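Question thread 4412

I'm putting together a teaching handout and wanted feedback from people who do this every day. The idea is simple: show students a protein as raw sequence, then show them the structure tokens that encode its fold, then repeat with a second protein so they can compare. Below is the first pair exactly as I plan to print it.
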Amino acid sequence: MVEPARFSLRQVIAETEKDPFAFDGPDGEVLELPHASVLTLRQATRMDTGDLEGVLREVSPKVAEVILDLPGYAIEALIAAWLAHAGTSAGESSASSRSSTSTRRPSTSTSKRTTGSALPRRARRS
């Protein structure tokens, strides 16, 4: 019996090249951010929770100084273009797979409870 080849993260990381996101800065200088999909899960999560400044300073300190002085509408447009370059959008981690919008809200019960704890819902622990 032939064993399947073992998956190698080392090989995937070494063989995967992602083009950086190049853009014209406010003074016309060509600037680059790394491809958004190379952000770590921690960095992507921090961006999703509002630590854009910290992540930008980690991945490209020089570019961060330029971006952080831009007006909000320009930053929003830039981040949207950066994420689109990676095939993702704001609120969607580049380290996660796409999810359907139907999973964003809790499901609604369609029947009366007949099993489970006798405690009220808010008193139960998950």
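The second pair follows. I'd like the answer to focus on this one:
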Amino acid sequence: MSEEVKPSSEAKQPKWMLLKNGKMWKMVDGRISGIVAVPDYEAAESLEHRLDMISDAATGFSCGLTDFGYQYLGSGLLKFSGTVGEILVADDEEEDEVMQELDPSSEAFRQQLIKQYGLLEVEARHACDNMDTEYGEETVVQLANGREIRTTVYPEEASYVRVCIDGLELAYWVNDEWHEKTEDVMGAIIGAARRDMSRETKEQATC
């Protein structure tokens, strides 16, 4: 599936919050979002059960999210966005125990990316080094493994291709590269796009 993503001129910089359940999510204006593994999603008996499962997987509490939506990607992976529930908004004295903001330039942040998304070391470093890189309007192909292939919007020439997860850039190629080494670059793009995070996240979710 593909979609066009337009950047917002008033977009706020997200905070990266590490929750007590060991998951880290982007937070903007009290809403967190990301890709979460819910291995038993398809076995849920009702919509209410599914919503509780998603909230629990993302926050550690079945009531940890309110006013949230989701998109099922397949293989037990879902993309979600929701408002943080009151149970996660603790008193100041307890706030660090419930949610902790991580600095994107820190080693802890990089290691969390590797753990949560099953990234290679080189992918995590690339993501951290390019968090402030801005792109214009893009076409996004969402893959079932949670990764995305992004490029410019037609009819603009495809001057680059990048592989992302949760909007974080994991790899990037410009058109000069695939003109000069077509086979190598196409192989690298497919290799980066096909890496499966579902196995790693499922194992963590069931621990």
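Top answer:
Good format. For the second protein you could add a caption like this: The chain has one domain: 2-205. The two ends are 31 Å apart (CA to CA).
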